[in-house]
């Protein structure tokens, strides 16, 4: 009888031990990552929303103790309110934010940080970089420079080209600077360079003007894939045949499809991908999943997207 | 009868649909990440081995289609062979490497890349940076500068200090440069600055020399936590009481424990953490888990480790 009790106790404690071990193996503190992004007002932000939602699902499936809450906002003012909603309703361990504007969001993000929240800023910086723990951004100079290097080589450093600018911003300035710096070392002449506000219709009209003005155009750089679609339509309607290349930049789905199809006029693109929001969410989660150091500055490259590697940059279900 | 058959077919196709959906949800291509790192020849590399193995376990648990193979090598020559073993035996989708030396490993890593393997380089760069897809490194200038800023403020920009250098390398040069650049804007005098090769015993002996030579030392910067332990022992044995602060850098476990305990002489550290190998493995895996863009350059910050945040930098089971 004594022996039996002892035995029963031994079994019981073995069971408890197993139960305890199992519990401690999964008993990580629950963590919540808030994600605040612009609503899908145009193609690129549509991609941001898609990739943020995908990342949330994937992270929650991979790391059950990590909860990812995505909030989209149609304006800077709405994003300020969204930050309040996110941080008042729950204990926010991290905030991943793609700010609408630097000026209006800096103060509100600083207040979120004051309660100990890890801050990841994506794409557009805040006016005070000391607030962010992690910064993830693309390289707009490389978008321009890598495209220019490829084009200069293809044109054998000779010819006449036209360029379209986006909206007057640092992003546009950097892309143009990266492109023109490379072109200055060639005999390629930039015939014209005008703004079309990253807008497909305006790019169509501007390209029609360029075509009317210049009888010989060897290539077009549209600076952005949205504008490239307008440019391609204008070229198609004009029936002009001397234009060898029309290139954009961003890694838009429609353009990646052209690259995958080995299109003669658009055989490359350079990414400034909306999926960088995914990069930021995965990096932020890795800190909570494995205590991996993630404070710092991640500058994404803008490698050439070619027919060989295009599948790595292609998301068939994404709107962008 | 006809209706029943139709009904049965409908049920069957519904079942098939569910089966197909379930399959496609998990039917991701299997991916293998090879990790090549130095063997645990000293404290810091001991930490690298620990964190690489932890990351492998965590990633495989979170993403069942990702396989992580860790190989440690006791020398540069051995690491070259390890790369051959890793890439010959299996289809390597990515290689995460902390190279022993830049010169000897550059060629072998380039050959691995030629078969389409994604290359992540950690800490020490290759001689040709174009080979890497992702580069993850600490910020040695910030290690020196952030420590110097904290110390200058505590000393009210006045006093006499001594500094220990490591092994003559770019890493040591950058830490020292970051520190001395900040000190130049203060009235703090650096009495002496000598090499102790990141070695605890040599740091002990050098600190004894400093103590014999200089009757008034307000603070010591050991540049590295291994050396700091030697310095602390020399101070302890000397019985000298005027030294207010003795600081290192790296985020070694023993020193984080001092910080957590609010130690008067060593209340801070700055990380150059061996866990950056984890950062690199998580980032590389995120590319295969969610196609998150991960080509680029990630420079880790060296934020001050203080009693308030020390738990984030502390791994109780790590050897370092």
Describe the structure.
The structure is a homodimer of 320-residue chains. The first copy, chain A, has 2 domains: 2-138 and 273-304, 3-Layer(aba) Sandwich (Rossmann fold), CATH 3.40.50.2300; 140-260, 3-Layer(aba) Sandwich (Rossmann fold), CATH 3.40.50.2300. The radius of gyration of chain A is 25 Å and the shape is elongated. Chain A is built from 10 helices and 10 strands. With 320 residues, chain A is α/β, with parallel strands linked by helices.
In short:
The structure is a homodimer of 320-residue chains. Chain A has ten helices and ten strands.
Shape-level CATH architecture of the largest domain in chain A: 3-Layer(aba) Sandwich
Considering the protein shown, what is the CATH homologous superfamily of the largest domain in chain A? Response regulator
CATH topology of the largest domain in chain A: Rossmann fold
Specify the biggest β-sheet of chain A.
6 strands, parallel
Kindly name the structural category of chain A.
Answer: alpha/beta
Any idea of the CATH class of the largest domain in chain A? Alpha Beta
**Unreliable stretches covering 5 or more consecutive residues of chain A:** 1-26
Assembly of the depicted chains: homodimer
Measured as a percent range, the helix fraction of chain A is 40-55%
